[in-house]
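Aim 2, interim progress. The first record below pairs a target sequence with its C-alpha cells.
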Amino acid sequence: MTPPLIDLSVHHQAKGLSDRIALGFTKVLRWTADTFFAERYGHRAVVLETVAAVPGMVGATITHLSCLRRICDDKGWIRTLMDEAENERMHLMTFIEISKPTWFERAVIIGVQWVFYVFFFALYLISSKTAHRVVGYFEEEAVISYTHYLAEIDEGRSENVAAPEIAKRYWGLPEDATLRDVVLVVRADEAHHRDVNHSFANELGGLPTGEIAQCPPHAALEPIWKKVA
C-alpha cells in the first residue's frame, strides 16, 4: 500500500482572536513536547497520540447530544469525528508496540489524558470553532513531527525496525513493512485530520472549507460480536 501524497506546507493563517488562541495553545503544547521528549520521537508519539485521540470522541459526543436536543441532522460530523478518534487510537496502539513506554510514561499518559479531556470538553462547549481549530493546528504540528521522525530514520539515528503486526493489519501493509512505512501512513492520516478540522472550523466560521488530503485506506474495525455471530 502506497500512502497518498500530501502537502507538507499547509498552514492555516490565524485570523481573529479565536484562531490566535488556538495557535498559541498549540505552540505551548509543542514546546512542552519538545522539552520533555527532545528527539525521542517514538515515545513522543505515544503520549501525543493519547491526546490526539480525545478531540474526535469529545466532538462526536457533544454533536450527538446537540443533534438530539435540536432534532436535526449532524451532516456526517459524528461519524467523521468517531472515525478520527478510532484512527488516532490505532496510531497509539501501533507506537506502543514500537516504543514500549516505561511506567513513568504510562503515568504521564493517564494524567495528560484526563487533563486534556476536561479542558477540551469545556472548550468545545464554549466554542466548537476554536476547538476544531486547535485540532487543525495540532495536526499541523503532528505532520511536522512525523516528517522529522522520517528524517531520523532515513539518516540512521532511529532504527528502522519491522512494522508491528497491528499496523500491517490495519493499513494493509506488506509483510516486510518497516517503521518508515508506518510513519508515512500515520503522517498521511494526520494530514487528513488536519484538513478536516480546519474545514470544520471554517464551516463554523462561515469561511470556505478548502481541500482535504486523502486518507490512507485502512481496515474497518469490526466489533467482536460480529465475528462470533
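The second target in this work package is listed in the same format:
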Amino acid sequence: MSLTNKIDELPADLVIGLVSVSDRASGGVYEDKGIPALQEWLQSAITTPFRVETRLIPDDRASIERTLVELVDTAGCHLVLTTGGTGPARRDVTPEATLAIGTKEMPGFGEQMRQISLQFVPTAILSRQTAVIRETDGHAALVMNLPGQPKSIKETLEGLKDGEGKSIVGGIFAAVPYCIDLIGGPYMETNPDVCKAFRPKSALRPANKE
C-alpha cells in the first residue's frame, strides 16, 4: 500500500502512542510499569475521547526508531510518549532514536522536565529527555521522551503544586494540546483539576458540553 493511501486512512480521532523502552520488561524479567502509569494519568487528565496504541520494546535504537515511525506514519498517532532509556548508560538510546525520526526538535519539553526533577534529585541533570515533531505528507505528531519511573512520569506531565494547590513548577502537558493544534491534530481538552491546558485566547474553542 502506498504512503498516500495510508495517509488517507489515518484516523481523525485523537490517537496516542505509548512506548515503554526496557530490555528487562520486554524480555519478561519484570512487569512493565511505564505504560500503565501513562494510561492512568492520561485517563485522568484528558477529557477528549482518545484511544491508545501501546508498544513494549527493548533498548535497541533500530527497534525504537522503527516503532516510532510505525506509530506516527501507519497507526496515525498524534502524540507519542516514550518512557525509559533516557539516561547516560550505554544502552540508553531513546533520545538518539527520537531525534533521528524527527523533523523538528522541541527542546523546551526536555528542559522543563529536568527543571521539575531537579526539585527532588541533583542527578536529574543526567536525564536526556527530549521531544520532536515528526512530519509526513498530510500528518504530523509530537513525540516526547518521559522518565522511566511512574512517580516521575506524573510529576513531569502534571507539574508540582503546594499544599494549597497552587502551581510551583508547571508540568509539560499544559503545552501539549496547543502544540497538537499547531501541527494539525485534533482539538484536545483536559481536566483543569489535573492539568489545565494553555492556549492563546485566539485558539480557544467553546467548551464541549456534551
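Residues 1-7 have pLDDT under 50 and may be disordered. This observation will shape the mutagenesis plan for the next reporting period.
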